[in-house]
């Protein structure tokens, strides 16, 4: 069965999913290494249609980009530069 996404699903929601899942992976570490699977399953089910209620607005592209840069570990070699123009 193929799930249908709710109408208000927005591609940046995937970025938020990855960021949230990274928090679970980091917090659980080797104590509960498969906990992320449940979190992802719960999130995927929440993306399915029909929606129960409207979602808050997605973060603005530039705000989400800045948040991803903040999430980088200190000393990361990625060049931090302004968000690309849309």
Task: Give short descriptive properties of this protein.
86 residues, flat, mainly alpha
Provide a concise account of the structure shown.
This protein is mainly α and 86 residues long. 45% of the residues lie in helices and 0% in strands.
What does this structure look like?
The chain has helices at residues 12-28, 35-46, 61-70. With 86 residues, it is an all-alpha fold. The chain has a domain at 12-70. Helix 1 packs antiparallel against helix 2. The termini are far apart.
What does the secondary structure layout of this molecule look like, with pairings?
Elements: H1 12-28, H2 35-46, H3 61-70
Helix pairs in contact: 1-2
Low-confidence segments: none
N/C terminus separation: 35 Å
Average of per-residue pLDDT values: 83
Roughly what fraction of the amino acids lie in strands?
under 5%
The number of distinct β-strands equals 0
Gyration radius, in Å: 15 Å
The SS-based structural class is mainly alpha
- Describe the largest sheet: none
Instruction: Report the order of strands and helices.
Output: HHH
Number of helices in the DSSP assignment: 3
Proportion of helical residues? 40-55%
Q: What coarse outline follows from CA principal-axis ratios?
A: flat
